[in-house]
Task: inverse folding
């Protein structure tokens, strides 16, 4: 066992893949000598040089587009965008090009590309640098969407994402970058996409979440345990493909569901999971399906306001209790 | 630039293929055989032909919504193209792409594209892959005058220039962005002047002169193959048909089309052939008949090809996942 930060997990996966496969390269804003806005690529430029670790202009459209074009021509690019908010600028290239090329072209093109995007609130970065836009991308057929919560998963899921023949949006939570997790060095290996992880086993209620809210959910579970409620916490790890089997199995056991994410609730991906449970697993539920998310506002700047808008463990605890 | 008679005949054949393919597509659309939107390349044949005559099979192109000409010029198979227009199983995209999304990875055709200006960025990605692999391939990026007002144009030309990528940006200035004339959509008359903003060579040529296109693109390709970076070439041409089939073209000034019809790129080549003894009028007629037969065969191929199975709609979204269907 050793300690590794979430950011180190991501960097290590890129480093190992780049050593292993000469077709893997990283480009984005300030990813070179500067080491990336959040320091994720620190040291990679020194190790791999200008050809493989490329600083781009501030041009999100062509960053994503260059990933599309180079992937179609045989490379395995990793494109880093500084914030998921900036993906809006490159959205055509992701949604209309990357996601649809294989289908439109009758399955005759592979696009082994990863777009890495830091997401989420919590650092006082305000409305244009704090969003959780995972539902936007999970909505689009043709994209895979990954959202790890810890160093081990970040490493293993990125390894798999880089090798995937389809475009993967790899969402990183910026609050988690510096968080240290214990990782099992023997288990530092690729993790298949579409396999949820049970973060805590329980019998009374299923909390389904991902990313930073895994920790809030675990804290809520701990508080609930003191009141005799044994919550199961499921970290879905990938929004698409989604591990329906793991979700239904847990619901069949606990019969109660709380879904948690940092997205504002309107149109959130948690709504998709809730609908899926309602459609396919309704008779297993003995209480309403509850959702916890951010309020339906942009993310405000002032610390107190930001904390108020974004969900925390107390919100999760209250949502669970409302079912009993 | 040296150009052999054989090459000339090949280019002429390509222009005929495009003209006759498009004329047939026009008729088939009118007859209701082709669904969706069809954007025809009639009148612009010299651009795709002259440009692609400089390319090898392993070179790349990106195309546009008006892409049939580019695909034919890069060696696309007429049967598979026509079957795709008809939405059939043997179409290039198994009937899932249609007119605006034909691609052929084996011939370096990175796809027609339904989003105006999207090809610029994809071409840069292709150029990056070429440079990274240190080959001497190139990518030709075709686009219209109106797409030079999209942000992608600026992003792509800037990055291609700063990274010295082997991309040749070929602007087909056909005078219109849908219904809006160039004079009303940009305050310049020559798109090529924009090259100076990226410190890359930029020229404007007669896009209805296949020799001029061949020569200009040839020089740019030679530079790109040597690692000397991108070029912007503006080819002045004209779209004979509307933006799409069914467009009543009420926006055209009187006499404009008629003036451009006189600059038809195809008779110009025929005249050169006859004047210089490359081909006789009889041989030209024979070749025309041969190409017409090819198009008839393509139509027959398309009509014989089965309609795709409903299950096929669920495939090819991902390489490794088949989506769920519905029971009806």
Result:
């Amino acid at each position: 066992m050793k300690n590794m930060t979430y950011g180190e997990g991501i960097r290590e996966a890129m480093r190992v893949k780049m050593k292993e496969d000469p077709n893997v390269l990283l480009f984005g804003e300030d990813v070179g000598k500067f080491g990336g806005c959040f320091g994720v690529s620190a040291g990679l430029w020194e190790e791999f040089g200008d050809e493989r670790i490329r600083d781009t202009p501030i041009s999100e459209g062509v960053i994503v587009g260059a990933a599309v074009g180079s992937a179609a021509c045989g490379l395995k690019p990793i494109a880093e965008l500084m914030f998921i908010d900036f993906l809006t600028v490159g959205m055509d290239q992701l949604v209309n090009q990357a996601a649809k090329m294989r289908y439109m072209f009758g399955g005759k093109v592979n696009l082994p590309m990863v777009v890495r995007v830091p997401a989420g609130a919590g650092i006082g970065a305000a409305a244009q640098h704090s969003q959780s836009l995972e539902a936007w991308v999970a909505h689009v057929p043709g994209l895979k969407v990954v959202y790890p919560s810890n160093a081990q998963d970040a490493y293993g899921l990125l390894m798999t994402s880089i090798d995937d023949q389809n475009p993967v949006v790899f969402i990183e939570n910026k609050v988690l970058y510096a968080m240290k997790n214990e990782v099992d060095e023997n288990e530092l290996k690729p993790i298949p996409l579409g396999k949820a992880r049970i973060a805590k086993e329980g019998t009374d209620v299923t909390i389904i979440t991902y990313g930073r809210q895994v920790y809030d959910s675990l804290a809520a579970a701990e508080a609930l345990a003191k009141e005799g409620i044994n919550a199961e916490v499921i970290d879905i790890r990938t929004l698409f493909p989604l591990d329906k089997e793991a979700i239904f199995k847990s619901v069949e056991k606990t019969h109660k569901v709380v879904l948690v994410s940092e997205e504002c609730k309107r149109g959130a991906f948690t709504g998709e999971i809730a609908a899926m449970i309602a459609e396919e697993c309704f008779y297993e539920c003995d209480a309403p399906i509850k959702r916890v998310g951010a309020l339906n506002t942009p993310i405000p700047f002032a610390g107190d306001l930001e904390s108020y808008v974004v969900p925390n463990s107390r919100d999760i605890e209250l949502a669970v209790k409302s079912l009993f | 630039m040296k150009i052999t008679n054989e090459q000339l005949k090949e280019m002429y054949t390509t222009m005929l293929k495009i003209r006759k393919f498009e004329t047939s597509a026009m008729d088939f659309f009118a007859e209701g055989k082709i669904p969706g939107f069809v954007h025809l390349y009639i009148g612009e044949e010299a651009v795709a032909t002259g440009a692609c005559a400089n390319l090898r099979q392993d070179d790349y192109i990106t195309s546009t919504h008006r892409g049939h000409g580019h695909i034919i010029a890069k060696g696309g198979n007429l049967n598979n193209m026509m079957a795709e227009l008809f939405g059939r199983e043997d179409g290039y995209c198994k009937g899932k792409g249609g007119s605006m999304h034909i691609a052929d990875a084996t011939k370096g055709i990175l796809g027609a594209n339904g989003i105006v200006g999207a090809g610029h960025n994809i071409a840069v990605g292709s150029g990056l892959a070429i440079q990274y692999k240190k080959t001497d391939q190139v990518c030709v990026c075709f686009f219209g005058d109106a797409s030079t007002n999209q942000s992608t144009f600026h992003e792509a030309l800037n990055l291609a220039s700063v990274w010295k990528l082997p991309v040749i940006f070929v602007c087909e200035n056909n005078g219109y962005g849908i219904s809006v004339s160039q004079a009303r959509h940009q305050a310049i008359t020559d798109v090529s002047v924009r090259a100076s903003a990226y410190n890359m060579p930029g020229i404007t040529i007669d896009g209805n002169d296949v020799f001029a296109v061949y020569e200009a693109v040839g020089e740019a390709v030679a530079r790109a193959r040597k690692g000397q970076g991108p070029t912007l070439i503006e080819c002045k041409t004209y779209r004979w048909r509307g933006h799409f089939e069914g467009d009543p073209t009420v926006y055209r000034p009187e006499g404009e089309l008629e003036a451009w019809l006189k600059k038809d790129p195809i008779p110009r080549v025929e005249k050169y052939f006859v004047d210089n003894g490359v081909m006789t009028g009889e041989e030209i007629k024979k070749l025309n008949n041969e190409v017409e037969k090819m198009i008839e065969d393509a139509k027959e191929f398309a009509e014989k090809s089965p309609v795709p199975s409903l299950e096929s709609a669920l495939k090819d979204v991902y390489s490794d996942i088949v989506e769920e269907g519905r029971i009806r």
About this structure: Chain B touches chain A through 49 residues (CB under 8 Å). The beta strands of chain B are 60-62, 139-144, 167-173, 176-177, 180-181, 202-206, 231-236. The two ends of chain B are 62 Å apart (CA to CA).
